[in-house]
Every structure is written in C-alpha cells, then in structure tokens.
Amino acid sequence: LIFFFLGLIYDILYIERLEVNMNYLDNINKETWEYFKVLEPDFPAWLIPYINTPTMLKQQYISTMCGKNYTKLFNVDYYYSSLDHSIAVALIVWHFTHDKKQTLAGLFHDIATPTFKHCVDFLNGDYMKQESTEDLTSYMISSSKEIMALLNKDNIKLEEVNDYHIYPIADNDTPKLSADRLEYSLSNALFNCHLAKLDTIREIYNDISIQTNEDGIAELGFNNLDVGLKFVWLTSVLSVIYRDDKTRYSMQLIADILKDMGTLGIVTKEDLYTKREDEMLEVMRLNGYKDVIDTWSNACEVLTSSEEPKGVYYVCHGAKVRYINPLVNNLRITDKSRVAQEMVDKNLAYDMS
Predict the structure, then answer these.
(1) CA separation (Å) from 6 to 14, 112, 236?
(2) How far is Cα 148 from Cα 156, in angstroms, rounded to an integer?
(3) pTM of this prediction?
(4) 335 three-state secondary structure
(5) What is the band of 133 on the pLDDT scale with cuts at 50, 70, 90?
(6) What is the 3-state secondary structure (H, E, C) of 102-147?
C-alpha cells in the first residue's frame, strides 16, 4: 500500500500530534533496560541517534500486542512497544555480527508498523502471512531526513538497510531462528505472557551462537540440547497464544472496526500512522463503537461454536503459524530429540476451525 501524501502529512501531523520523547533511553522501563543488557551488555552508542529520530520514536506508541493489552481477555500488565522490539532486534544482530548495516536493517524492520500492528494485516486480509505493511519500509526510511542524514554520515546506502530479509541473522524463513523471531519469543515469554524469568531468558540467550544450517547459510542456533528444548517449549506455547481463539477474535474485531470507520470516512489510512492506539480507541468510542469497545475491553472469554452463529458478530479464519525448529550444533533439534518433535507436532496440530 502506497499512500501518496503520507510524506506530506508526516512532519506536520506526526510531530505536532505525538508527544515525542527525544531521548528514549532516559525514560526506558527498568525491566526493559535489564533485558536489553542481557542481549548486549555494551549498548552501542552509535545506534542512539538513529533511535532518537522522530520516525523511530513514533513506534513507542504502538504495542507489540496488536491491541490485546486493552482487553481483559489477556490481562497484559506490561507495555512493550514496537520500538522496544526493534531496538532489541538491533541489539541481537549487533551482538552476534557487530555489523552496522545488518544492525540498522534490524532496527528499521518495523518502521512502517501502523497502530495496532498486525491488526492492519487482518484489515488488509493478510492474516496468514502478516506482512502487508512491510512494503512501506523503504518509503518511511527515505522520507526521514534525520535518518537519511545519519546514513549519509555513516556512508550507508538505503538499499543496504531497507530490507532485513537479505541478512539471515536478522531474518529468515520459518521455522529457522533469526534475531527477529528470537526477540519476540524472549520478550513475549518475559513480559507479556509470563512464561519465563529474566534468568531463564539469560540462560537461553547465552547458549546461542552463529551456526551453519542445512543450506550452508549462517543461522542462530543452540550449543546445548537441554537449553534448546527449553526454548522450543516456550515458543510452542507462545505459538498457540499467537493464534488462539481470543487472539484471532480480537485482532479481526479491531480490523473490522477500522475498516468500517474507513468506509464511513471517519479515519483515513494516514491516521493509522499518525494516531496513537489510545487515540484511535477514543475515536472508536466517539463514533458509535463505544458499546463494542467497552464489551471487548471488559470481556474475559470468547465463545466458540461448531456451527455458524446467527445474529452475532463472529470470526472464522486461521492466522499465521509462528513456530521455531532451531539448530543445535548445526542440526535441527527435531532431528536430535523426539521430545522436541512431539512439542512441535502438538503446536502445529492446534485447531483453528
């Protein structure tokens, strides 16, 4: 999706309407900072100016939970932003490569993320791949005069940082382990889903090294089978959470309200990149969706049916299957462990019908 006047409204609307914190690290949550220190004890000072650009800072107003932190269905009690995630990915890439270009590609990979994150993929009908907003990555980078000035100073070209898919440590295909996949697994296990403490996160992370996969390509992998099994257990649990009934319902509900408001002219596509999530929820409440949002916000469960419901709003489709089959000493863990294979099989068998 190419929004022709996104650049025009960017400096005017975004800077005027968002309360931008121009020094992100000065106000970082203590728990997030402790987690960052696990990923890279020596925070790279050269990265800070890139983080403090307006285009990057707007990501601190988007949660990684795709709106799920605004309903009791999930009881999320920690705010972990898209900016936090992007910085953490960059730290992982830097930790293992010490390559500025790869690190910046990791930092920028979600720069085009709109409000409510992957809910907009649902809005675009891309609930199975959840990649529909990535097309704007290059545009968002090139439209930022601050980022482009920094890149020019560091003698780095746009095409070297606008697609993290070209760097296998930063990103690769499921079910391989990449910095992006590793980061959202660790942070979700730690902050959003309370599946692990920081000591467990540290144990898992410190066991990882760069290895060579079956295709002869560099990939993050584990040195010890027992640690790899801990990680597979965590990610298998998370994988189901990412696509369970409550998650698919919530994300499609937000997407359908956004679509409805777009059809009615209440919001524009540009609003998805300029309004905070709390602002967008208020727009919903003020424009006829208050009862819906309040009901969803206070709900503790969703109902399921084996037959098509009549006379009610319902959701019936799948979602992207996120799972990881990591390397352990250059071999897939499922080739080394029957237990790992059983965990992966159980995860993949989750019924979304």
Answers:
(1) 10, 11, 38
(2) 9
(3) 0.89
(4) helix
(5) low
(6) HHHHHHHCCCCCCCCCCHHHHHCCCCCCCCHHHHHHHHHHHCCHHH
